[in-house]
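User: What would this chain look like folded?
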Amino acid sequence: MKTGKKKDKQLAKIFHSEVYGKRKHKFSQLEGGGLDWRELTLDERMYYFVNIDITGKDEYENGIKVSELFELNGVGLTTAHDDFVISESRKKLLDRFMRFKNAEPKADELYREFSVKRKTGWDILAGWRNLQSESDLVKFVQPITYRPFDSKFVFYEDKLVWRTVRRVMGHFLKGENVALVSARGTKNPLPDHFFVSASMTETKLGESSTQSYVFPLYVYQEDGSRAPNFNHGEIKRFTQKLRKPYEPEDVLDYIYAVLHSPSYREKYKEFLKTDFPRVPAPANDAQFHRLAAFGKELRGLHLLTSSKVNDFVTTYPKDGSSIVEAVSYKDEKVWINKEQYFGGVPEVARTFHIGGYQPAQKWLKDRKGRTLSNTDIEHYQKIIVTLTETDRVMKEIDG
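Assistant: Here's the prediction, encoded as structure tokens.
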């Protein structure tokens, strides 16, 4: 009954229990009252409704939130039909859209000929019409980081790509750039949703269970000049204890090193699962530049620009078809068919996770049924070097 009198706000008491097993066992536990109910300590900011360890919450929230430090950010682009607008071959993609442009403007035939599924709110003829006034389609073919260590090309046209996110991605078209790639949380047991890209990105690049967000280091002006993509107040707070000069790349590299600290991921995993990451501001110049050096090394490895990626730790000793058939692993050998394998593949590299993916396994499985070229074989060996070195650097960061 409403009395008009205000009551003091009080949180309800919430209790939690869980039971695993088959349905019959679960019903038995419920009917028999055999569950162990525990009262939750509620966090008024998130209301997790499960038992989690919130030790270090205040310390963590004193950190700098990357979505506030990088003023411009947004999700990676979404195509809604990857096989249509994305390809590993620049030439094949260009040839495909030359055929598309010159095809008859009949929707049913276009959907069928180019194996495109219909999508509500998207009209294939709108894309066809946009290309009719274009004399050169080369400008639309742009590099994209599709998955970790898997770069491709995208036909970047506003009516053909479902969401181009041009306000963010446009800053990779005007000049050199690099971006932190992360997400607003993850469903993975241990946070690993951190990567970098020097080109446009697809929305599942750095986080398989939700959406990746892109944080460009630079924003370009109309005159071609560029400026660091930092919020003035947040970068001032971030660098308040620094006395020596620093470059924008140093800030990105410091953050990247912190995000790759195993102890940081473990200590703050519950908070990293539910929001954009926060990183502690550097305590002094020595700490900042030491961590930035680790981050720079990781960035070079993950962009495959480091000279170290060419120091192969694996072999590819057998001649054969190089067709990826059934991928298996035994005794540090990754078999791609009955005769051929990559030898000397460390277990740590094979099982390494980035964004919920295991790149050393996913890259090969995505190429099942294909013949690996010499470039492909070398690229896979670079991935193994990179993942092995990443594990080493991560341990050094904590050390």
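The CA atoms of residues 258 and 264 lie 7 Å apart. If you want, I can go into more detail on any region.
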